[in-house]
Specification:
Layout (H helix, E strand, L loop, with lengths): L26 H14 L19 E6 L6 E7 L13 E6 L15 H7 L2 E6 L15 H15 L4 E6 L1 H10 L5 E7 L5 H8 L4 H10 L1 H6 L13 E7 L7 H10 L3 E5 L7 H4 L1 H16 L3
Parallel strand pairs: 3-4, 3-5, 5-6, 6-7, 7-8
Antiparallel strand pairs: 1-2, 2-4
């Protein structure tokens, strides 16, 4: 239940297509940018992946090889739930990408996303980004992990249509992937900043000298990380954004800008801080996500 009236979702508005999405920086600049960001980002407690609770059974835990890189990503497959309609065929498969929290994919064990998706007939794949849970240490920008997870999703989903649901950092890297590769028919983004360095500037002001170094000397990497240059090239049929009006790292204007560029719906939850929209407006967030996925996959 919500604790306050919600901002009415804004309907998609036609908008101009921005210039082409920025090109990936060179390998050396990407490695330097990844190292600098990872070094300055929030500290994480390393460990192994947390097993899903039995309430989410059946599920299958497995690993995804990282393409062209050593190491694997820890992942979990949740097949669509047939209990409510045994004769119904699965409607699609959805990739969930977690925020920058030490729990990794275990973040999705709560708040009902997996249960709602499965009940609606969708298979679900979750995974730990590099540096989280039981996955290997990072050695590139994290959109590479999403691409490997997408490969695993394609292998398991077969011909079913695909959807994406990313939260904070997971949604951020989803933009970067989708602007160059567009297999998803629908996408949902929660609490996504247009630029991680801008978010860090607001959230961790002591690191501002290093952020200036990043922007000044790693210009191609800085441009590559600007989601305002990716949001207009997602290649999806339906997109929705969710955020809070009281998120100190992401002003409401930033949420509106990304939604405008992606011609997407936007749900802003009053008094919600970062990662709090799903807590204060659980039913509304889940309903918008399901409606977006169903719209994108209609006609399959």
């Amino acid at each position: 239940m919500t604790t306050a009236p919600l901002t009415t979702p804004l309907a998609p508005q036609p908008t101009f297509k921005p210039r082409a999405a920025p090109a990936r920086p060179g390998r050396l600049e990407e490695r330097l940018g990844r190292f600098l960001f990872y070094s300055l980002g929030p500290r994480l407690i390393t460990g192994t992946s947390v097993a899903p609770p039995e309430v989410l059974a059946p599920f299958e835990r497995f690993t995804i090889p990282r393409t062209g890189r050593p190491g694997v990503l820890a992942a979990t497959w949740y097949p669509a739930a047939p209990a409510s309609a045994p004769s119904r065929e699965p409607r699609g498969a959805v990739l969930l990408a977690h925020p920058w929290l030490e729990w990794g994919q275990a973040y999705f064990h709560r708040r009902g996303r997996i249960e709602a998706l499965r009940a609606a007939g969708f298979h679900v794949l979750t995974f730990d980004l590099s540096g989280f849970g039981a996955s290997a240490r990072p050695d590139a920008f994290w959109d590479r992990d999403l691409e490997d997870a997408l490969g695993a999703l394609l292998a398991r989903a077969g011909d079913l249509p695909l959807g994406f649901w990313g939260v904070s950092s997971g949604g951020y890297w989803g933009h970067v992937l989708m602007s160059r590769r567009a297999p998803f028919r629908a996408a949902v983004f929660e609490d996504v900043s247009p630029h991680l360095i801008e978010w860090s500037w607001r959230q961790a002001p002591l690191g501002r000298p290093f952020y200036l170094i990043f922007r000044t000397f790693l210009r191609r990497a800085y441009a590559y990380l600007d989601l305002r240059r990716h949001a207009g090239h997602l290649g999806t049929r339906a997109v929705a954004y969710v955020g809070g009006t009281d998120d100190p790292g992401i002003p409401a204007a930033d949420h509106r800008r990304l939604a405008e560029l992606a011609s997407a719906e936007l749900l802003l939850v009053p008094r919600a801080g970062h990662l709090a929209a799903i807590k204060l407006a659980n039913d509304e967030v889940l309903a918008l996500a399901l409606a977006t996925l169903e719209k994108g996959m209609a006609g399959w």
